[in-house]
Amino acid sequence: CWRRLRSGSLRLMQNEVNQMKFTKMHGLGNDYLYVYGEVPGNAAELSKKLSERHPGAGSDGMIYISTSNIADFKMRIFNADGSEAKMCGHGIRCVGKYVYDKGYTDKKFLSIETLSGVKYLTLQIVGGKVKTITVDMGQAEAEKAMNLTVDGETVSLFPVSVGNPHAVIFVDDIEKAPLTKLGPIIEHHEAFPDGVNVEFVQVLGADKLRMRVWERGSGVTMACGTGACASVMAAIAAKHCHYDETVSVVLDGGILKIKIAADNTVQMTGPAETIYEGETEIC
Predict the structure, then answer these.
(1) Which of 1, 94, 224, 229 is catalytic?
(2) Active-site hit among 88, 94, 229, 241
(3) Is 1 a catalytic residue?
(4) CA distances from residue 237 to 74, 178, 264 in whole angstroms, order as listed
(5) 224 carries an active-site annotation
């Protein structure tokens, strides 16, 4: 926001500076900066700048909340690298908490417009604030297992769509899973021209999975809501889990409850929390 004058000095152009208020929130450690209002033209640039963990506020990206012509609210998601995501399970839960806790709505059943369609939330209220949220995630679609040659070795994975793309890999020991080694390679593999989220999953039982994730555009994150849904869908396809039974997915940031019906419609239940309110100067 500084302009160089002919004399060579610098002067701050006050009319080029705007204050942007944001709220940092997280769902099981998957954190975003939330802004209510229309999406600015430089949203991708802002997300890259403010998501930096040291010079910025630090986050997995930014989420803008605005009015919608087809739902109660609309959300748009920008990852830490500036790319735009279609859907985020943790992000949409925080959207529900944001609009209710801040008084934008008093409804406990909400519809949210996303780039992967309209999603529906049921808010659980404790002490006048949203505590947990159940999200109707729509349908998940699992393809047959496929083998990829990655870094000189063959990797078997399940491609799954939950409104955004996932590659689910089952492992025997999650602590030894090559998350940071294979995650970025598979994310940009030619088999996934638009990129892909990569989940490594250890089966702990028919009702419990342990998952770690390499998110498209963000890298390793504490949790991924759509990734948890994709993991259960892949586990059902692989006969590890069953339809119409609640499965606990243990993430680095906590636990999500996932239930998938026989028609592949998915319900996800988990918490959302506010970290702090912030304000920054933007140009």
Answers:
(1) 224
(2) 88
(3) no
(4) 32, 23, 11
(5) yes
Residues 6+ apart with CB under 8 A from 181: 151
The answer to whether 267 and 259 have CB atoms below 8 angstroms apart is: yes
Provide the 8-state DSSP code for 174: G
Measured between alpha carbons, how far is 133 from 261 in angstroms, rounded to an integer? 18
Give the list of residues 6+ apart from residue 80 with CB closer than 8 angstroms, or none: 47, 48, 51, 59, 60, 61, 217, 218, 219
What is the distance between the alpha carbons of residues 121 and 126, in angstroms, rounded to a whole number?
Answer: 16
Nearest-angstrom CA–CA distance, 267 and 205: 19
- CB environment 201-240: b (16+ within 10 A), e (fewer): bbbeeeeebbbbbbbbbbbebbbbbbbbbbbbbbbbbeeb
Using DSSP bridges, classify how beta strands 30-36 and 61-66 pair: parallel, antiparallel or unpaired: parallel
Pairing of strands 30-36, 18-27: antiparallel
Question: Smallest Cα–Cα separation from 264: which of 240, 236, 239, 223?
Answer: 236
Q: What is the pLDDT along the chain (283 residues), one digit of tens a residue?
A: 434 444 444 444 444 558 899 999 999 999 999 999 999 999 999 999 999 999 899 999 999 999 999 999 999 999 999 999 999 999 999 999 999 999 999 999 999 999 999 999 999 999 999 999 999 999 999 999 999 999 888 999 999 999 899 999 999 999 999 999 999 999 999 999 999 999 999 999 999 999 999 999 999 999 999 999 999 999 999 999 999 999 999 999 999 999 999 999 999 999 999 999 999 887 6
- Do residues 48 and 82 lie in contact, with contact meaning Cβ atoms separated by under 8 Å? yes
